[in-house]
Amino acid sequence: MLQINVNTYLNKVLSFLIIIIASYLFWIFVDVGNFISPKIYSSSDMSQYYLYYTEINDNLNLSEFISVHDNDRAYFAFTYFLSKLGVSFEFFLFCLIFLFYFITYRLFCEIALSNRVIYLICIILFSSFWMQSLLLVTLRQGFAYLIIVYFLFNKEKIGLFKKIILILFAANIHGSVIMFIPYILIENKALKNIKFIEILFIFFLLGYFLDIPMSYASNINNLFTYLDIESRSLMFFEQKDTTYKLGFSFYKFLAFIIPLIAFKLANYKKTHFHIIMKRIYFYYLYTIMLGMFLSGLIFHDRIFIYGWAITPIFLVYAISSYSRIISLMNVVVKQFNIN
User: Fold this and answer.
1) Residue 116: is its pLDDT beyond 60?
2) Residue 47: which of 56, 39, 36, 55 has the closest Cα?
3) In angstroms, how far apart are the furthest CA atoms of the chain?
4) Which domain holds residue 194?
């Protein structure tokens, strides 16, 4: 006879409903409907995505539509078919918002081994900040991020070849995903030498503090040009040509160091780590190190955000760890008082 754990089933249903409600509330409070409107924000990226989506009509076949958008063709091919199926841009975006919350919470449950509703609410609150940047500013990158994170950290082990195919596909949604090719090639070695990666992280951090990446930024762009790589948002500009903060930024530093410290403190003196936890931890160090390395280039926060997007997991994991310690201390104190 098929047996169902009622409590687990009800918790999953409740979590699903909470994420649906949270997605709706995010849509209302951020006023996404107006945010994507070309009439109100005609020059924003989101309004352009909306126009691209709605410009698809019966007189434009797939090859013609793709030829107009010669970058990140997988995104435009995917949205072409969605549009042809009658799926509105608003529903597509709402689904991505839901998936952002859902995937982040699923990963948290994997490393914390807890699915309490209070932690889901914390995940939603922390995730909303980064989701606004990833999905409402850089939609294609947010879409690609969800694909990468979902499949890379799936319970079922994926072989190297499949991972490469996955990354190449996601890179056709947003080109920045190609940066994960080195990641998957060194992941197994890195997981066995995580202390070395942490030491390497400290060296990158020191270089970031000293603004060393500013000294070779133009060389990187020359290399991109020589290799005929279109780096787009990472194109280097002199500081006088832009208001964008190049090099070291105290606020960006806080954004990636606080969750890292919280996570490390929560794991203080632990000798055994869940494999998913180790993989997510290395993923975070890798993306932040790469962001620091490229901090002399404009919009290098497009690299940082791959790491920032999972910081809610670290923060809520720390909260869950501290709450368990406090609960244990309360039990000990009560036992002491009884005796």
Assistant:
1) yes
2) 36
3) 82
4) 6-30+88-338
